[in-house]
Known about the structure:
Blueprint: E1 11-12, E2 21-24, H1 30-41, E3 47-50, H2 56-67, E4 71-73, E5 79-82, E6 87-96, H3 101-111, E7 115-121, H4 132-140, E8 144-148, E9 151-159, E10 165-169, H5 176-185, E11 192-196, H6 204-216, E12 221-222, E13 228-231, E14 241-242, H7 251-260, E15 263-267, H8 280-286, E16 290-294, E17 297-301, E18 314-316, H9 324-333, E19 338-341, H10 353-363, E20 367-371, E21 374-378, E22 385-387, H11 393-405, E23 409-411, H12 424-430
Parallel strand pairs: 2-15, 3-14, 6-7, 10-11, 18-19, 22-23
Antiparallel strand pairs: 1-23, 3-5, 4-5, 7-9, 8-9, 11-13, 12-13, 15-17, 16-17, 19-21, 20-21
Helix pairs in contact: 1-2, 1-3, 1-6, 3-5, 5-6, 7-9, 7-11, 9-10, 9-11
Amino acid sequence: MTTPAPHDAPWPAPTSIGPLDTTVTLPGSKSLTNRALVLAALADGPSVVRRALRSRDTLLMAQALTALGASVVTDGEDWAVTPLDGSVPEDRASVDCGLAGTVMRFVPPAAGLVRGDVAFDGDAHMRKRPVGEILAALRTLGLAVDDTDGALPFTVRGTGAVPGGPVVIDASASSQFVSALLLAGARFDAGVDVRHDGEPIPSLPHVEMTIAMLRDRGVAVDTSEANRWVVAAGPIAAHDEPIEPDLSNAAPFLALAAVSGGSVVVRDWPAATTQAGDALRGLLPQMGCTVSRVDEGLRVAGPSDGWRGLQGLEADLHDVGELAPAVAALCALAQTPSHLTGIAHIRGHETDRLAALAAELGALGADVVEHPDGLTITPAPLHGGVFHTYADHRMAHAAVIVGAAVPGVLVENVATTGKTFPDFAGFWSGLF
């Protein structure tokens, strides 16, 4: 097994030399873990988040909620949460968002429910990610927020209560804008009535995930009208939440089956889920893979001649944009052209993923044309070289997928995968 290189030494991605047949157990879902932590911190009694993902993003969320006065015990895989009591431990609390969009967007509405100032900041790139729509919405709902240009850093001046009520937002940049208001909305005095006015919302499965988790805790959510979500005021019931495996993190492993011409089983793949990663079951067959359910979970088998048998893909990834880097990497290995659309919003993720994918895949020889909302990828010979990740875990996933087929791919800052998958590099190398 190889070990991750230091940050300043690019890590050599292992290359497959034949069909790989394996079964993998993946860490828990970041999206589910961080939503469960927020709801547990706002609940009417203690809860346990079972098989919680331990990663940078989830630990940042635990620390943020602790700063608001909750208790989150992160020992072991089951995390015990005692709800916040309405006052920050000190006169002024600080929240480090790191590169976690869920922390930057989900925690401010909860901060309004405590008495005291809560200051938010994060990594340098986070100051470029959109959050102004949330801050404007919180002001409409009765909160005081100090910010400059609708970005980090900002301060929420909590009074212990949020009036709530109706608010109109443009969530076309991120579905998290909707989820952020819904998660805390039941604790607002008048609940919350969120209306979206703008281009279609990306990644809608994440909103559906939020709604399902609220209803599991007894919260009434009216979704009878398109682009409107009404959360009734009331308690959020304590609820022990078992966390599913992270199906978006499954993308590079299932792609490895396609690249090597072998098969990979992801253990415990849920029969029904709100996770966007479940879309892989429909995307991979279009590229020439075979997908089937087995007793252990989900099995993907690649073409018999591996990546040389991959077919290009015409796909609108608007609802599952987080899969775009892994899918684009497979498309760069395919034998026919691909056109990925509907993903303009991923320019506002950890990095501008469209520009980054075009640059990094292109640097390895791929023929990539960047469009405002997607990529066109035409077959071209690939070669090794340094693949920059821009501190983006999904870019690192794209790099190792290409590296599994192309010798000499060097991944810059592979450790960024720790955002959602601790020791990803060691785990990945062990498969070879």
